[in-house]
From TrEMBL:
Protein's UniProt name: Probable septum site-determining protein MinC
Claim: Calcium is one of the keywords in the record: no
The entry's keywords: Cell cycle, Cell division, Septation
Residue ranges constituting the Septum formation inhibitor MinC N-terminal domain according to the UniProt record: 7-76
Family statement drawn from the similarity comment of this UniProt entry: Belongs to the MinC family.
Described function: Cell division inhibitor that blocks the formation of polar Z ring septums. Rapidly oscillates between the poles of the cell to destabilize FtsZ filaments that have formed before they mature into polar Z rings. Prevents FtsZ polymerization.
Organism: Blochmanniella vafra (strain BVAF)
Domain spans labelled Septum formation inhibitor MinC C-terminal: 133-233
Gene Ontology biological process terms in this record: cell morphogenesis; division septum assembly; regulation of cell division; regulation of cell septum assembly
Assembly: Interacts with MinD and FtsZ.
Amino acid sequence: MSKVISIDLQGSNFTLLVMHAHTTCMPKIRLALIRKIKESPNFFTTNTPIIINVANINQSSDWLKLYQTVSEVGLLIMGVCCCYNNQLKKTITKSRIPILTKGTNIINYNKNYNSKIVEYHNYSVLTFKTQIIYTPIRSGQQIYARNRDLVVIANVSSGAEIISDGNIHIYGAMRGRVLAGASGHEESQIFCSNLSPELVSIGGHYWLIDQIPQEFLGKSARFYLKNNALVIQHIV
């Protein structure tokens, strides 16, 4: 009789927002979060996962208030980073929240759009092979083309996540989150035939949909980096 395997543990790759708490004034944090959620309602859905940078939090009581504030606005705390206070670590651990170290792919969500950068670690060398997908990518699905380009000949739905260490080509509606150059390759580009994403990122530099000029939405477009900034142009 063959042995049945009950579970299978595998590594994966996720992109998570990081909130930096620059104050311990909870009403200010609540208002700032509500404002961000209203600015990008398609990006911040119910229970959007988030990481909290607690470098500026020193008191256990402040953490408990912060945990409650973030949870009450509808965000789901997946972990904390930059926790160097031993007493605070004990309190966070009692809250059953993981304390993360470098190695996780995270988005630094700072106050200034120009300073928002995805931090990537463990860079790898691209082999520039191509992965081609012919079926639609549905909400909740994640596709990661490791060390290769990615071509999707179908629609990408809202709530889906497309990640590639190289270039990304989408010949269909481009919704969801699309991240090229995920291992830090800043020469990667994104091409699509119908632009309407929740997030676009190349080499860690990213835009939310409200940063994309209206004239490009629903049209074919190309994204690339120039002088460490995202550039968008029409595809004729």
